[in-house]
Amino acid sequence: MTTHLPRRALLGAAAVLATPVPLRAQAAARLVVIGGGFGGASAVSFARRTYPDVQVTLVEPQTRFVTCPYGNLLIGGERQLAQITYTYDGLRARGVNVIHDRAAGIDAAVKRVRLAGGQTLDYDRLILSPGIAIRWGAIEGYDQAAAEVMPHGWIPADGSQTLLLRRQLEAMADGGVVGFAIPANPFRCPPGPYERISMVAQYLKRHKPRSKILALDAKEGFSKQGLFQDGWRALYGDMIEWVPGNRDGRVVKVDPREGVLETEFGTRHKVAVANVIPPQSAASIAIEAGLANDTGWVPVNTRTFEARAAQGIHVIGDANIPGPMPKSGFIANTTSKQAVASAIALHRGQTPPEAVYFNTCYSHVGAEYGISVVNIFRPNADGTAIAEVPNSGGVSPRGDLPEQRRLEATYADAWYDSITRSMFG
Ligand SMILES: Cc1cc2nc3c(=O)[nH]c(=O)nc-3n(C[C@H](O)[C@H](O)[C@H](O)COP(=O)(O)OP(=O)(O)OC[C@H]3O[C@@H](n4cnc5c(N)ncnc54)[C@H](O)[C@@H]3O)c2cc1C
């Protein structure tokens, strides 16, 4: 803000500077974060620990956050909803100003966020981590009403979609077919559908062993495919049939009343329970703010996560599209720290830090059968590109290794405990 001083006041400027009044340049930087999930909660938590002089505000409509990770274990009967639900009390206790409201608009020109409740928030730097939206209608017949019959369970919100799927499995007669519709890349959590298939299979094996799973996939291959398929055979025999896109696996239409999933070449699969995981985009606030391109995702500088379309707004988590990095909670958490450090550095006129990002995605094939994939990514100096570090990362070893699988399941539990504690604890 510019203040116009009278001439006499300007002449006395040296005396004014000598007095210990706070100057505008010394005011605490205002960091506003939209979305209190994996990216946003990690960002505010890191900001409070690392930059005590920065004012940190979090805008999140929900008072409780249900994690997607371990949601599949809820479906398999290995977790209860309360075990994957978190409040924002811990962040508040650490000094984060938590506002439970929905961001309704962003004015990048004047650096202001408008909330649905009418309040406005001025920021020096904005971090946006609003997650994904479902592309309703991308599969013909799949709208909000259809999702109440054929749940997606891909945006947990209050957990009701995940619980609906679980209740449908409980109500299903033994011998029924559980159908999956799985989208093309990119989408939230590349191994997520296959972990879900595994957990549904585990539930069926225990409670409805004559049932089958039909997994209709728009893709021709998937994350940790060999490891998943080894585990499926070992644990579930021939219960799971996976149909790739090049063998008519792409679901293009659903009929919730008839319980039908229809594929590209017109094959109609009647199923007892359907889990439709539809195509996705960045959440609506990112699109309405004009940050997404025609892919529906937000291109960002790969070093600072600043949106290509707006200075001062850093977009992290699943809403962005930084090259080959997967849309995972781990990546949202890792990159949130780089985004905060870059935002503060840029606000102070400093150079953002160098970066390397790593990702580990664990999946449960059975309750005591874990597998994983590790990737390491490095952005280039000016943030125009990002690439996987050559010869880095990899997947769990294949073979008949029961102790390795048991250990990896416990590593997954430890990962979940530590990431949620670092976000909300
Ligand atoms: C079944 C399943 C299993 C998964 N398992 C794993 C796993 O094992 N490991 C892993 O690393 N990842 C996993 N993931 C992926 C992980 O959940 C996501 O990558 C992660 O949640 C992305 O973080 P985010 O911050 O972008 O979005 P989210 O965590 O979804 O958070 C977005 C938040 O923004 C809020 N929001 C939205 N719009 C607004 C607005 N206008 N104003 C204010 N707030 C808003 C929402 O309410 C929400 O709380 C899994 C995903 C699924 C579906």
- Counting DSSP H or I runs of 4 or more residues, the number of helices is 12
User: How much is the radius of gyration in Å?
Assistant: 24 Å
- The helix fraction, in percent, is 25-40%
Number of domains: 2
How confident overall, as mean pLDDT?
94
Strand content: 15-25%
Gap between N and C termini:
37 Å
How does the overall form come out from the CA principal axes? globular
Structural class: alpha/beta
Q: What profile does the largest beta sheet have?
A: 5 strands, parallel
Low-pLDDT segments, ≥5 res = 1-24
- The overall strand count is 23
CATH homologous superfamily caption of the largest domain: FAD/NAD(P)-binding domain
Distinct ligands:
flavin-adenine dinucleotide
Strand order of the largest sheet: 5-2-1-9-19
- Enter the CATH topology name of the largest domain: FAD/NAD(P)-binding domain
Given this structure, which CATH class of the largest domain is correct?
Answer: Alpha Beta
CATH architecture of the largest domain: 3-Layer(bba) Sandwich
In short:
The chain has 425 residues and is α/β, with parallel strands linked by helices.
How would you sum up this structure, described in words?
With 425 residues, the protein is of the alpha/beta class. The chain folds into two domains: 26-131 and 283-354, FAD/NAD(P)-binding domain (3-Layer(bba) Sandwich), CATH 3.50.50; 144-279, FAD/NAD(P)-binding domain. Helices cover 30% and strands 24% of the residues. It is built from twelve helices and 23 strands. A five-stranded parallel β-sheet has the order 5-2-1-9-19, with helices on one face. The protein has a four-stranded parallel β-sheet with strand order 13-12-11-17. Strands 20, 21, 22 and 23 form a four-stranded antiparallel β-sheet that branches. Helix 8 (192-207) links the parallel strand 11 and strand 12 (212-217). Helix 3 packs across helix 11 and helix 3 crosses helix 12 (402-424). It is globular, with a radius of gyration of 24 Å. The two termini are 37 Å apart. Residues 1-24 have low confidence and may be disordered. Flavin-adenine dinucleotide (FAD) binds at residues 34-40, 59-62, 65, 68-69, 71-72, 102-103, 129-131, 154, 188-189, 192, 196, 283, 285, 317-319, 327-330, 332, 361-362.
